[in-house]
Amino acid sequence: MTAPVAVAQDKQVVLGRQAAVSASHPLVTAEGARVLAEGGTAVDATLAMAAVSWVALPGQCGIGGDAFAVVREPDGRVWTVGGSGYGPDGADLAFFRGRGHTSIPLTGPLSVTVPGAPAALGVLAREATRPLSQLWARGIDLARHGFACTAKNRYDITERREPLAADPSTAACFLPDGRVPEVGRLLHQRDLADTLDVLADDPFAMYTGELAERALDFLRAGGAPFSGQEWALGAQVEPAPAITGTYRGLTVHQTPLPSAGWMMLHQAALLDGLLADGDLLDAASVAALAGAARAAFDDRYALVGSDTDAWRELLDPERVARQRAGLTTAGPVPASPDGDTTSMVCVDAEGRSVSFIHSLAFTFGARITVPGTGVVLGNRLGRGAYLVEGHPNEVRPRRKPLHTLNAWVADDADGLRHVGSCPGGDGQVQWNMQVLSHLVDHGLDPQQAVSLPRLSVFPGSDADVLGSPAQIRVEAGLDPQTIARLRADGHDVVEIPVQVFGPGGSAMAISKDPTTGVLSAGADPRMEGMAIAW
């Protein structure tokens, strides 16, 4: 095996066998490590990290967005929680077309779904050993008393300054004095701190009562046809079994619909046994990875809705065998890696693992904040639903849009092997598959696996990019001979720079050595993250 690229500077710290945590911001990682070091569980640590990340990474996630998690218990039981909501009851094809829209707006009230994150966290909190008021204390304190603006925060605000400035409540938080904050300046989210105080007592208070009425009044005033009933239904979230597939003898557990988890399992089925004998990221491997992603996204667009089981048929072994024959052929590809999300993974001293991912969809979501609450709302309806009549993902009342979010864990008969996640829109399922392959096919450690150049097929399942010219996009650093070979085989390959804070995702991974039990962890160098194992 030869590595065609240099791996970024190692961020992992291995101090022992007891626990590990990885997240996209040092404050988030530090909070998870603190909770674990004090004897908390991986669920406790995840809840604490979520609250800190709402404050430290406000462009990527928030209580007004969605969240998914997969939890593996020490006894091997795996369960998931999926927090995502419906769009307005009055929002159907006729509603949007009657207002002159050919696609759902990507910002503003018409782009919003009911937040799923509070309900998902409420479900996780039932399995915690400590109250939310304690686990969220650090996040609430940062929101109330201020946190230092980082380079990532400043980048996000600078890139979206105009839409953020258009909403007074959002501007008050992120454009103090009307200016983009300098790195190191304290940013305050005092309204959010007050809201989190309320939700720490009852996360489901987002769906009924004063908080719900504030949100509904604000959205209805902006033209969103919420009835209120779909908002109350947002509280109806329960734990669910994981969906599973296999890869190189491992069982891969993923989050079910409306999550895109099945797409990683689809790619794993197509690629199982194809990548281990080649060199790392050689032309044949890249073509196979791109072909598997292409097949999954083709099937997603043509067949899968959030309220169907069509994805199960796509993993039928005979169908998978037929699709394998065309994996490396050039042709149209339907996926977009755009999106801005954040995730975290952790393993506690008992061996319990959690992979958790949460998002506002695009950076700062719909770019609007419910007045007086500090709750920035996500734009998942605009991001995920189509104005295509008869399509399985057509916008429709009481149909959740398909999601890009997914989280995974892999184990075998001897126990936990790997746990990971990677934000990045439609890139997520592709990059998660690539990281899994690096770990399993080539035996890389987590830091190497998350640092290598990534590839993605483009354009996309997002409504605003459908029909764009087909490409395979590869990050700088891939062997030039690999790129030349791909082009000679007919692929339209576009090289893109490795973009710090750009759309390249922020992969996290933790692995457990099956012989020694030692944990190792990695955090993506494309963001400000940090991984610790001890």
UniProtKB/TrEMBL annotation:
Entry GO MF terms: transferase activity
Q: What are the protein's UniProt keywords?
A: Transferase
> What superkingdom heads the lineage?
Bacteria
Q: Which InterPro entries match?
A: GGT-like_enzyme, GGT_lsub, GGT_ssub_C, Ntn_hydrolases_N
- Matching Gene3D superfamilies: 1.10.246.130, 3.60.20.40
Q: What positions belong to coiled-coil segments?
A: none
- What's the protein here called? Gamma-glutamyltransferase
